[in-house]
Design brief:
mainly alpha; elongated; 10 helices; about 0% strand; about 210 residues
């Protein structure tokens, strides 16, 4: 007689794995530890998932990755302002609010992808993610400020800001669980970051004169 698999057990295993992967990374998290956290035997995990990779990719799906990329592109596009980005721009409305809500709902998935993805099939995601944001940000900067020269120093600093932004996302989502706290932390970080970007643009414009 075929064994009946229970959705409640599958969900418990997936939740335990998500927490372990977010805390330790895919490479360090073990099936034994995941099983222990889920309150099942290690052999039970394999009845629901053929291997640890299948367990991970049932959590961090292609659809999740695509949606994170889409929402990020929309957020960057919304930053474009005729006279530059405003330091007090509302981070809780429009595309920014949509992205924040998505990150809060998928807190641990995002930590796994951005913080530990180098040991998975998504190893290239973070560099590609930063590169795509950089390309979009530089294109917008050139569109808003035609006189701006995209010299190597400016490009380097934009890349560093974006790298720090990704590390900051992971740090915030690791430190806070409550959505309101997450939104406040992201709003504070974004305000600091935008002030820095505006200062960088002002510096670059002055350099180009």
């Amino acid at each position: 007689m075929a064994q009946v698999l229970k959705e409640s057990v599958r969900k418990r295993i997936a939740e335990a794995a998500e927490a372990r992967f977010a805390e330790q990374g895919f490479d360090s998290a073990t099936v034994d530890a995941i099983a222990r956290d889920a309150g099942v035997a290690a052999g039970t995990v394999y009845k629901y998932f053929p291997n640890k990779q299948a367990l991970l990719y049932s959590i961090v799906t292609e659809e999740f990755v695509a949606e994170l990329s889409r929402l990020t592109r929309a957020r960057i596009a919304a930053f474009a302002q005729p006279d530059g980005m405003e330091a007090d721009q509302d981070m809780t409305a429009g595309p920014s609010g949509e992205l924040l809500g998505f990150l809060a709902r998928n807190r641990l998935k995002t930590v796994i992808l951005l913080g530990w993805g180098q040991w998975t099939k998504y190893a290239d995601f973070v560099p590609d993610y930063i590169r795509a944001m950089e390309t979009q940000a530089l294109a917008q900067a050139r569109g808003q400020f035609p006189q701006l020269e995209l010299i190597p120093t400016f490009r380097f600093m934009v890349r560093r800001i974006l790298e720090e932004s990704v590390r900051g996302m992971v740090a915030i989502l690791t430190a806070f669980e409550d959505e309101a706290d997450i939104r406040r932390a992201f709003a504070a970080a974004a305000r600091c970051r935008m002030a820095g970007i505006n200062a960088l643009v002002s510096w670059a414009l002055a350099e180009g004169k």
